[in-house]
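From the pipeline queue, job 12 of 40. The input is one protein chain; the requested action is below.

Action: predict structure.
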Amino acid sequence: MTAGLKENPMNATTASASLACKAPAAPWYRHRWPWLLMAGPGLVIVAGVITTVIAFTGADGLVADDYYKQGLGVNRQIARDAAAVALRVRGEIAREARAVRVALSGDAPLPDRLSLRLVHPSRASDDRTLVLEQSEPGRYSGSAPPLSATRWLAIVETPQWRVSATLEPNTAGPAVLTPGVGQ
């Protein structure tokens, strides 16, 4: 035996007593650090699920399925605008609670019926097409469904010409119909 390394019986008893006094370690889910480390990836997963739900339920109607045919029809639309300018077709459109009234004038005889397209600025599914009947010369009216409180494009057209106006929900009085779309 070496002189300085004697076993001390007191050290063994104090070590076993100190181990007996310590509480058992808590399971991992009782500590905050694993939860803090998992919170970031968990939030990313939740945000991804929310984004996916929004993407699939809120379909945007901005891209047309028949874009090529619509592109070919642009020349016909421009020709109808030019015909409205040549015929000096002008007018006013007024929207009431459940009706639409149109007053037109021009150099050509006006038809008995007109087509009115109410175009929503961002949702093609909300667009409406109405047929307006002539009540007296140059005056047309028809029933209209309630529209949302947004700016609408009103296009009054025949196969030969078309005029348009922007309907503002908060503007009182009629809107002026002029050749061309969106003016």
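Job complete. The chain has two domains: 27-57, 67-179.
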